[in-house]
Specification:
alpha+beta, Phosphorylase Kinase, domain 1, Transferase(Phosphotransferase), domain 1, 7 domains, 6-stranded antiparallel β-sheet, 4-stranded antiparallel β-sheet, 30 strands, elongated
Amino acid sequence: MNKLIGQMLDGRYEILEVIGTGGMAVVYKAKCHRLNRYVAIKVLKEEYARDSEFRQRFHDESQSVAMLSHPNIVAVYDVSRSGSIDYIVMELIEGITLKEYLARRGPLSWQEVTFFSMQIAKALEHAHSRGIIHRDIKPQNIMLLRDGTLKVADFGIARHMAQQKTENISEAIGSVHYVSPEQARGSHIDNRADLYSFGVVMYEMLTGRLPFEGDSAISVAVQHINSIPLPPSDFVPNIPAALEGITMKAMCPSLSKRYASAGQMYADLERFKNDPAFKVEIPPDDAQHSYTEQEADATRKLTNTGEMRENGRNARTRPAQREGRESPERQRSSVKATLIFSVVSVAVFIVGAIYFMISVINPFGGDEDAEVLKAPPLVGKTMEEIKADPEIWDVYDIREGELVYDESVPAGNIISQDPVADHVLKEGQAIVVTISRGPKTITLEDYAGQEYRQADIELRRLGLIPIIQYENDEDSEKDNVIRTEPAAGTELNSGDNVVLVVSEGPELKEVVVPDVTTMTLAKAEETLRGAGLTPGTATAVDSDKPDGTVIFQAIPAKSKVEENTVVDLQISRNPEPVMKSKTKTFTIIEAEGEVQVEVKVDGETQYKATHLTEDGEILVPLVAEEGRHTIRIIQNGETTYEANEEF
């Protein structure tokens, strides 16, 4: 069992259970007894707590995340140290990671991708505006709440831009499948590294797969440096061109062609949301990207919001200064990276040369005078328009392909063609066109009885817009859907509103609180239940009132409260009496024969015996509670002594 579980940090945070483990820290669920709420506490691992470098890094993280306050970023409540334990107190998220959600769902609808991406962009815009680079954006570090809200988490390797240091690939931190080319190369990075990783996350949401795979981390990193991924639409058809363009622009290996800021990326997402026909301008990029020292310096020309600034003489001299300080190990690492890049570049050159010889020079001969026939642009036209144009219909072999639903293309219009426009056609090659069916109609499912947050996520995934309204309902559990408006079975289009009528449980009635003081506990509880209330805790309190009777009720009599309100009670408990003893001396009266003697305390007989006059003085032990009591001595039926005495 983890030794921290059950401990109380700073007399405030009770550690309950482990909920996650990272590279440097363990995350626990804890209860804050001061504010009576559950929180997440990140504690630095023991093996790192003894290392000053790791400890400093943990404190850097604390200072970084403490600067951030945004609804799409996991909140930090406290940063503290208890004894030898360094810890951060964070918002406890009840949800799953985006990675887990993708594993369940596979490729997401473009509407859901847009909804999620706009939230991530806003979170990054906030962090970057405060000079914080996350450095490890991936679905595992993005939490999804039940209402569809995303929160970016784990700024464990975040750093302030002013603290950036160049690192080689063996030191690069972060998941290699999402790492930017400049991170993989070990170059200085800025906020655009996060945007590249964000683009990879969007790619995975759209396709359900990663853009680059490999047998090792090095092979994946090299692909990030030297390759451009296939467009998402190659794997999943009907992805809107604008959303694909936003994704690919974020993933441009060339820093100058990538988005300069999260704010720019959010603006394009918002334009696309409002106008699906919006076109994203992406400067042309080579399939094999060459990364120059000038472009490496470009990372130093941006402020934290993505605006250009002057380099100055010192910035221009940094490469030379760095070169003079490089260790032999770093030089060998650089030579190795250069060698890999050179081999890949030569291979690409050879392939390109062969293609050029076959396609352009054509060393094997051919008809140089043959007419070149290129595919005409057909996208956006209808088949009726094509058939009415003899320059197209009589010249080309146009064939209708599949009919697909498309939100942005009117029914009957061509969405895509294969081959694409201006492609050189082979002899007899046909052009296959994909035709739009128009927006897909959605048959609204029956969500009655389902928890409303899950229904909300399902509707958003289908491209519908949920609106929440609440009603009291005797038959529906609280937070469950009572019905939808329009009703289940209605045909809808993407973007339509759906009202989820959600239960607040039965309507609570007001009742009058009865007076149960002086009653026994059983009678008081029976009376409260009869009035529509719930008997609460009964606490025994020392009192001189009759033992076991109610002496206090938490809600005063005649108050009006909601039905089933809990009423706590206090019950009288008579303390055990303090007993005292004393000895009473008296003389036997003169009488012939036997004398019957009886001694009473407060009317209760404590001594009874037969004596003779000759017995003289008698000593009788008496017991009573502390205080004054009446002592009475009776001999042969007559009272010979009566008085109040102190015990």
